[in-house]
Structures are given as structure tokens and as C-alpha cells.
Specification:
By secondary structure, the protein is an alpha/beta fold. The protein contains 13 helices and 13 strands. It has 4 domains: 98 residues, Nucleic acid-binding proteins (OB fold (Dihydrolipoamide Acetyltransferase, E2P)); 152 residues, Rossmann fold (3-Layer(aba) Sandwich); 38 residues; 93 residues, no CATH class.
Length: 442
Amino acid sequence: MASVYSVSQVTAYIKNMFTQDFALNRISIKGEVSNCKYHTSGHIYFTLKDGGAQIAAVMFSSQRKGLAFELAEGQQVVATGTVDVYERDGRYQLYARKIERDGTGDLFARFEKLKRELEEMGMFDACYKQPIPRYALRVGVVTASTGAAIRDIMNISARRNPYVQLVLCPALVQGERAAASIVRGIEILDRMGLDVLIVGRGGGSIEDLWAFNEESVARAIFNCQTPVISAVGHETDVTIADYVADLRAPTPSAAAELAVFDYRQFAEQVAYGRQRLNRLMGQALERRRFCLEQGRMKLKLYSPEHLLNEKRQRLADVENRLAGLIKERIAERRHRLALDAGRLDAVSPLRRLGGGYGYVTDEEDRRIVSVAQAVPGERIQIRLSDGRIKALVEETAQEPLLAAFGPADVQKTSAEKGRDSHAQEEDGGEGSARRAGERSGD
């Protein structure tokens, strides 16, 4: 019976064969770079291929000094290193120590040629880019129905906003018929009047992504009336579709983040906006109320009724002041009148007549104020308070003034006697003067 070996034994044996092969220990391989990945550790993983085969390759970070340019998809290079077996995966690969350029690969050349042509036609110009709706509610997706891209888009969309509707148009994203399938999906969704489209697929080699470098796909994206987000491959993958689309997303997941707005954040913004609006409206209403109150006060201040009331108040004040002044003046005049009346009464002939005195005249009504004016045998008239007496002068005699008064008259107060004396003097003076004038006239 033949010997039975374990997988590890066989792999180790093969690895030993590779190690002992002098040609494989220092070999230079020419090919086109494909599926190039820069790892966070600094290692570079890529594939070298030609028309008939391909070989996996890696350049460790410690060997990066052997690379004088940035390795990228489609480059034609010559990689020098060792071909050895990676025992864990049971596959062989090239461990590159040095990589040099060897011209541009066919696919890369086609990529650059189409890119220049479309750019010259203006299809990449920013003036043709449509804005992506901020609050899209219906999002169309053109991608494979079973790939990782659609699952990522669905998961992120559900997390960010469960109310957004996703419309998938399944398409081939790899192979000869992929370009036509993608174009058809774009045209179908564009006629549905959606808010935004996501066109893309997951990562892969340049050959895997080549459908998105076809001119027909580029023109379908350019002519689409609905805004288009391209989401092809990984962040380092760039296709013609990325240049033509209205917005490029580095991955399908990122495209979902850009197309679907966060509902919770939106609700918070709406709540904040409502609070701010209410606050601003309250402040505006308060300012309007203040202005209205000021206007009302000004209107009241300058209104005819207010002015009339003010005039009435002033008139009432003036009337009060005038009434008080008049009262004072009347009281003053009454006081003065009382004084004058008292003085007049003191010198009034009627008062003297009422006190028992008489007014003596001759028959011709000439006043007699002295016994010298009375001639015995002449008739005289004596006027009292209640009438007139006609008398005949029998005789006259000169006597002192006090002798003519009785006991009652002597009891008069000195003030009254002074007033009476003063009045008699005035009457006597006037009478004497008149009698003298009358007699001189005679």
C-alpha cells in the first residue's frame, strides 16, 4: 500500500521544492497590476496577470524601498523577488523585493483614453452636476440583487431612516453583458421619478469593475434626469462612472449614508427649529405688543379727547384760581365797603337826626349853624328824623357848647362825642360857608 501523507507534509514538501529551485529564488515577472491593495500595516497585496494566467504577489513594508512609485491598477510592471508557498493557504505567490514600471496595461490605456475623450466633451464638468436631495424619500439602486453592496445599502438605510423607500433594479455588474444591464437599470429607475439613484457594486479587480468604465454606462449616467451617486468598489477604486456621476461615494455603504438622511437627527433638528421658531415668534410678538402699546399711548396723548380733557382741566384750574381770587377781591371790597359805610354812617345827617338832633334852616332853607344867624321874630325850620317843625325865634343867647347838652348827652362816649363834634364842625363849616355865601349873594 502506498504511503499516506498529511496536508502539512505535502505542503512542506512543495515549499521545500520551491526553496531549492534556484530560478524561483530570484525571479523577475512581467505583468499587469490588478486588485492592488495597500494594507494598514504597510504591506502591498496585488496580482500580476497577463492574457493567460495570474499570480498573487505581496510586497512587505520592509521591502517598500524597492518601490519608487505608487502601485496602481492597470500598471504594467516588472516585479523581482522570490516565488514561494504560503503554507496556511496552500498556494504559491510572489514575494516582491523590487517593482519597476514596464509601460501601461491595455485596460488602463483604454481607461485613460475614454477618460480624456469624455472630459473633452465636458461630461465631467461641474456645471452638469445635479444637487443630491437633502431629504430623499424614494431611493433607487442599480446593483446586483445578491451582492454585499445591496445588503450594506439596506442595512444602513434601515438604521438611518426606516421611512425611506428603496427601489432595487437588479443588474449584472460583471461580465460582457454587465454594461447593458446597468444602462437598462438606470433608464428604468429614471422614469419612475425617484429622488436619487445609487449605481455601483462591491470591490474587485479592474476587470471586475470594468463595466463601470464603459462609455454606454457613462452616457446613461450623464443623461439621467435623476441625481446619481456612484458607489463602485472600495475607496481606492476609481471608474469612469465616478467622474460622470453627480456625486461619488467611496463605497456602497457610504452612498447609503449620503442618500438617506438620518431621521433621528432630522427629528431633533425639527424640534430645535420648532423651539427656536416659537421663541423668535414670542419675541416678535412681544416687540409688536410693545410697539402697539407705545402707539396706543401716543394716540391717547395726541387724541382730541385727551387734548380736550386737558384743556378742560386747565380751564377748571383757572376757574378755581379765578373764583378764589374773585372771592378774595369781593371779601376785600366788602370789608372796605363796610369800613366806608361805617365812616359814612358816622358822618351821616340821618344818623344825627335819628339821635335827636335837628337840622335848622331859615324860611328860605338856608342853614343856620350859629345863634348869630337867628334873628328874633324870624321864622325858622327844624328838620328832624321823622318830619319838619316851623318855629318863631323869640330870642337868642350865646352859651358854651356843653351847657346846651343834658345829662344823657354828657354820658356819650368820648369817641361818639368826638365823631359828633367832628360832624358838627364839618356841618357848621359847610353851613357857615354856605350861609356866608348866600348872604354875600344877598
